[in-house]
Fold this protein.
Amino acid sequence: MADKNYDVIVIGAGPAGMTTALYASRANLKVVMLDRGAYGGNLNNTASIVNYSGFKDVQGPELAEKMYQGSTQFGAEYAYGTVTKVELDGDNKRITTDMGDTYVAPVVVIATGSEHRKLAVPGEEEFGGRGVSYCAICDGAFFKNKHLIVVGGGDSAVEEGLYLAELASKVTVLVRKGELRAQPVIQDEAMKNDKMEFVYNTSVTEIMGDDVKVTGVKTHNNETGEDGEMTADGVFIYVGNVPLTEPFKDLGILDDKGWVKTDNIMQTSIPGIYAIGDVRETPLRQVATAVGDGAIAGQQAYQYIKSHK
Ligand code: NDP
């Protein structure tokens, strides 16, 4: 199949990638956003966003749709495909997807984000889709008036736990340490919710179930060393994220945990390759920071192409 030529290839159509597409296409560059799924990225798994400027409270999928409309208004294209290979070809970069397409451009912007980390305990794979979930907005409705366990102590665990508490009869959050990591304002809200219960110093060692679905978890108390069991109808796991950087691992641009290293203009150590949003080594991963990164990369793409003409 013939190469598809662009000025800028954005890999990933979440908030970061869509913002780069907006800025670069508005600067008259020919831009394509490649994504292995629907545009919007993790916005599609987020029920309510109250800390993105301009909105009091916005649903993730609604914001995704608005961002997509904005990002494509100056001609940026969206194409489906999972990137399998990135090759350097002189000043150009050659991107291959599992659809058999090859995209070529002088500028590539990596905006692939991250995905949920697995708990890596017995039963997690087996009961996937049968009571084990990583997405409250996708699966919460299956658990109306049921008892749910949430694993984790960060912002996602507590916020998504609050969302689940609107549907479930009770939400028990299992926290492996003696305290939560979530922001105080989110913790305060959860502590006030009668349906939320926090159990500290407790790790999940196994997810149990019958022939049909999850029935509970096996636990280990990290303070007393005691093992126990807890019954539940579903287990939602929010134990952090891992970067989606597999196709870039041979480029020498990742840190030891797999996040992409950039300078303050979002450029990696390879001229013309930028990284933005959650996939980047960064102290804060939010929609607002992703959008900021995306704007910088879009503008830098323009500067890079202008200076290489
Ligand atoms: P985090 O990495 O912030 O937190 C992960 C949590 O999971 C920690 O409590 C960690 O415990 C726990 N954990 C990790 N591994 C295990 C394990 N094997 N068993 C049990 N618990 C485990 O991830 P989040 O998804 O919560 O957040 C990711 C990023 O997104 C953060 O930067 C966060 O601030 C941001 N975010 C912001 C929101 C907002 O501003 N409204 C909403 C959601 C996310 P420990 O503390 O012991 O390491």
